[in-house]
Amino acid sequence: AEKDKMKNKIEKICAHDCNVFINRQLIYNYPDQLFKERGVMAIEHSDFEGSERLAAVLGADIVSTFDNPEKTKVGFCKRIEEIMIGEDKVIKFSGCSQGEACTIVLRGSSIHVLDEAERSLHDALAVLFQTVSETRVVYGGGSMEMAMASAVQTKMNEVGGKESAAMEQFGKALMSIPAILADNGGLDSQELVGQLRSMHAKGQHSMGLEFTEGSAADMAKLGIMESYRSKANQLCSAAEAAEMIIRVDDIIKNAPRQREG
Question: Cα dihedral angle (152, 157, 162, 168), rounded to 10 degrees?
């Protein structure tokens, strides 16, 4: 009776006119044999998150009952193969119909390298997502920070009192960004920042740092852009952190514990 029940269920699955069946649970020998007789490849132990991604990339529906094959959408891909990644066997789906998900394999010599690569990739994908959501972009290479610093210093001449001093320091903080970029690139930061300051004072606000030649260049011609939303979030977060530090009146430190003996 149990075999007949299982056979009936297999026939309902095969009525969907599929040649691959992916199951989240274990598939025993008898149903696996029935699948093979009907020319259906059965894949077992698909985790929940993996099943969701497969449904998105294959354009398929996830179903728990098989009574209505006409209402179920069957996914499609051109090739399914088992490959080795390191010491692990994985199943690769290629030529998928929807392309709404993908897998990125990271490799590194140590866990620390992998963690850093994963963090960098996550940040890059987050910026890409923000750019798709907010299509506005700004010039990169430190040109936007120099343009903002130039605007702050121009506005500073119209402000008196302590506010002008605060604006001056804010402008200097903005100019430190291209200086840090130049230092990280092994370039003369003072020379390059001086060139950028002169160019932006003349109204050339698209000029930034180009690290291939190690000089100032037009970011508009080179096509070097950054996400507007990402840049705005960075500026707001930095300003809020600086304001929070300024509001601190004093810092309380615990006295170091005396060592016995």
Answer: 40
